[in-house]
Inverse folding.
């Protein structure tokens, strides 16, 4: 056992920052690349590499490597010093790699690089835990790596393993070594072809300040992808501010977005900044853009065009350096045709358009992977044993069409974990499937009241109001669920309920 030694401030800073860096919705390669750069600098190494043990393939993969010649490598677990450390869990310090029989020169031959000294440590939570990967340093400047370097790298590798446990890199089944690589962004799980196209667009969009429109059914994870765009952009250290356009009363939307001056309206006893000002330098996420009142859409259009605005009750034109990401589940084209959404705002909002696939379109592998991910999350949260699914539970999950998408699956699994104290999930722990086969935006007939009596002579508003009231009753008063079944936003539903007799 190595004794703890004092660490320099730069090294200590890296240890402290690591957990916060990895607990975000980030591109793993970019994030771990930053960690490698800082690690190499802190230990005066020429290069740093993080290898992860791929539990599914049983080999090592460079999730990140400061190797400009080859950005990614794979190698068998039995090969090289990195493989030796991953297999045995030992820390290896080598002053002359060419003289060590465990050294594999194939990477040097492929890259033209010459490895001299090495310091390699296993990534794991503690000395008894399975090895998740390996962190490797090459060629220390001025002198070989020493014992203080080794103590520091062991401490950092432990911290790295603990931080990785907070991400969506799932541990191997049965508690074995390695991790399951589930996708490029933390907290976004899935490897289907449909998602691969989304990942590529998110990564490209994040490199610019272009306005992004995320489209997809309710529950597909639009807010997660919005945050992924933010934290992989140059604005990642600045605020990420969310405005849910469905929850704001129409008369308060402008004040919420742009703020107000003192005396602007009754009760405005002080100046209040809006979400636009609060997002200065960062990203403003407008969730459910399709529910934004028509009279506010023109003011939002002005802001998108030149980033200028005025507070309610103010005369001064203000500017904000803000990147805007929007999301909607609505049919904006139909809204434009019906005059409910401005055509010029529609085009301004969809500079970069990203369609998120419904869960049923992503394939059974993604559904099962997500189910296991949520099971791990809620088992940890509720103190349950390591979860496992019975075959009948997996059949039950695969047979569902998931009209509520990822959010519905998460609620199913959370409920199952709560009802399975031993961690074993059977079909009996899962909800009964309802409403199978209905189109995702179909206005489902109210359960238990399949026929709504509507006498002739009513206005269209009154017909709409009565039908919406029946749907809300069928949903036991849950207006969010009623809006989802009707395929409208919550603001639209609220306006229908307020229609005059």
């Amino acid at each position: 056992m190595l004794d703890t030694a004092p660490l320099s401030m730069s090294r200590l800073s890296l240890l402290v920052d690591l957990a916060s860096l990895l607990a975000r919705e980030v591109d793993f390669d970019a994030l771990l690349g930053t960690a490698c750069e800082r690690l190499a600098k802190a230990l005066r190494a020429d290069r740093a590499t993080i290898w992860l043990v791929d539990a599914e393939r049983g080999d090592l993969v460079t999730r990140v490597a400061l190797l400009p010649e080859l950005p990614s490598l794979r190698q068998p677990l039995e090969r090289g010093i990195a493989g030796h450390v991953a297999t045995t869990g030992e820390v290896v310090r080598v002053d002359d790699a060419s003289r060590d029989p465990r050294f594999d020169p194939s990477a040097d031959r492929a890259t033209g690089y010459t490895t001299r000294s090495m310091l390699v440590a296993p990534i794991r939570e503690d000395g008894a835990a399975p090895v998740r990967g390996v962190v490797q340093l090459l060629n220390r400047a001025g002198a070989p790596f020493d014992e203080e370097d080794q103590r520091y790298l062991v401490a950092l590798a432990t911290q790295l393993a603990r931080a990785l446990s907070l991400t969506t890199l799932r541990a191997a089944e049965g508690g074995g070594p390695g991790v399951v690589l589930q996708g490029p962004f933390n907290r976004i799980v899935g490897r289907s072809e449909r998602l691969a196209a989304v990942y590529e667009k998110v990564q490209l969009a994040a490199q610019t300040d272009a306005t992004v429109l995320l489209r997809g059914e309710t529950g597909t994870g639009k807010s997660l992808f919005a945050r992924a765009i933010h934290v992989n952009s140059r604005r990642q250290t600045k605020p990420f501010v969310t405005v849910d356009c469905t929850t704001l009363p129409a008369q308060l939307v402008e004040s919420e977005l742009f703020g107000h001056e003192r005396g602007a309206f009754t009760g405005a006893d002080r100046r209040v900044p809006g979400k636009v000002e609060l997002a200065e330098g960062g990203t403003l996420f407008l969730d459910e853009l399709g529910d934004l009142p028509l009279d506010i859409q023109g003011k939002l259009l002005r802001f998108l065009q030149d980033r200028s605005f005025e507070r309610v009750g103010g005369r001064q034109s203000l500017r904000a350096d803000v990147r805007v990401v929007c999301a909607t589940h609505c049919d904006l084209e139909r809204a434009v045709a019906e005059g409910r959404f401005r055509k010029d705002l529609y085009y301004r909002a969809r500079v970069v358009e990203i369609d998120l696939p419904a869960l049923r379109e992503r394939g059974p592998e993604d559904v099962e992977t997500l189910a296991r991910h949520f099971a791990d999350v809620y088992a940890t949260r509720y103190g349950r044993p390591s979860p496992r699914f019975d075959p009948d539970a997996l059949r039950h999950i695969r047979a569902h069409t998931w009209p509520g998408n990822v959010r519905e699956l998460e609620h199913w699994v959370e409920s199952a974990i709560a009802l399975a104290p031993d961690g074993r999930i059977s079909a009996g722990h899962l909800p009964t499937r309802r409403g199978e086969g209905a189109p995702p935006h179909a206005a489902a007939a109210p359960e238990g009241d399949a026929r709504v009596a509507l006498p002739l002579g009513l206005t269209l508003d009154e017909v709409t109001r009565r039908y919406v009231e029946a749907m809300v009753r069928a949903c036991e008063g849950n207006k969010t669920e009623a809006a989802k079944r009707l395929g409208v936003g919550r603001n639209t539903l609220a306006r229908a309920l307020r229609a005059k007799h």
